[in-house]
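Deliverable D2.4 — example input (structure tokens):
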């Protein structure tokens, strides 16, 4: 003999219906999202091809999607005058990666130090702003003249671009830490190192990780700009040669290759963010997406 509670049964059924409805809505949203994502390049590339085919856009200056595809095939099958595309791609990626790591580490360290020391921040703040205002192409030229055409000046320029992005976010992240929480943990006897380890750095991580999404793209830009200014290998050198030969298809093909690299790095940084900030409650946008 069994008995059921009508109210409880109805509540369970209601929760089940809500879950089913939520799953359906999520699937519909995902489907619409991917359809929209696919339509954007289809419309852009198709319109580009159409406009250049009918002559409304001159493909000599703007290239053409079919020509870009042929250029990509040529790069990956025939290579370049500076070696295989894989060699040049690896050179650019390694320069950007080393610059990204160097700029990230120095930006975090300097940002955390100045964020916790108001006097030091007031002393060095104007000089940091002056350095940040220097055009990067000028810095690239200085680095090329000073250190030659090797890897180091490319890494240095990429790290400079990354440094300022990470620094300002780390600095602001430290400034946004709840001072009441810091005061309470100090009252409990925590040392400055313990305060930084258990309060300041975890609180600033959201700002720091968010800056990395933009920082890697700037590392790529720094490496490419330095290669355009002077290099022996790299995607930037391929772009510079294609520009000199009035070959927009190869320029766009090189840009497409670097776009794939940047999107892959963005995906990896997103995975890192989810792992490192797993303790963080979901934001309003994340809740709406669920």
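Example output (designed residues):
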């Amino acid at each position: 003999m069994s008995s059921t509670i009508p109210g409880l049964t109805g509540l369970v059924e209601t929760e089940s219906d809500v879950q089913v409805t939520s799953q359906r809505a999520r699937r519909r949203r995902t489907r619409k999202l991917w359809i929209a994502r696919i339509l954007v390049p289809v419309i852009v590339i198709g319109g580009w091809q159409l406009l250049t085919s009918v002559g409304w856009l001159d493909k000599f200056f703007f290239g053409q999607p079919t020509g870009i595809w042929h250029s990509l095939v040529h790069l990956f099958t025939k290579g370049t005058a500076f070696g295989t595309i894989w060699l040049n791609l690896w050179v650019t990626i390694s320069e950007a990666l080393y610059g990204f790591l160097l700029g990230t580490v120095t930006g975090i360290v300097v940002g955390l130090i100045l964020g916790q020391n108001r006097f030091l921040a007031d002393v060095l703040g104007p000089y940091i702003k002056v350095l940040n205002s220097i055009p990067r192409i000028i810095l690239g030229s200085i680095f090329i003249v000073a250190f030659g055409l090797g890897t180091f000046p490319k890494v240095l320029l990429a790290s400079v671009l990354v440094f300022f992005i990470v620094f300002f976010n780390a600095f602001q992240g430290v400034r946004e830490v709840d001072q009441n929480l810091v005061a309470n943990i100090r009252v409990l006897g925590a040392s400055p190192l313990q305060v930084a380890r258990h309060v300041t750095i975890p609180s600033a991580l959201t700002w720091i990780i968010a800056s990395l999404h933009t920082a890697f793209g700037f590392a790529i830009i720094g490496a490419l700009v330095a290669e355009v200014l002077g290099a022996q290998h790299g995607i930037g050198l391929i772009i510079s040669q294609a520009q000199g030969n009035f070959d927009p298809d190869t320029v766009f093909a090189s840009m497409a290759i670097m776009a794939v690299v940047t999107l892959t790095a963005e995906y990896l940084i997103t995975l890192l963010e989810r792992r490192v900030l797993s303790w963080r409650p979901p934001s309003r946008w994340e809740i709406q997406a669920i």
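The first helix runs from residue 6 to 54.
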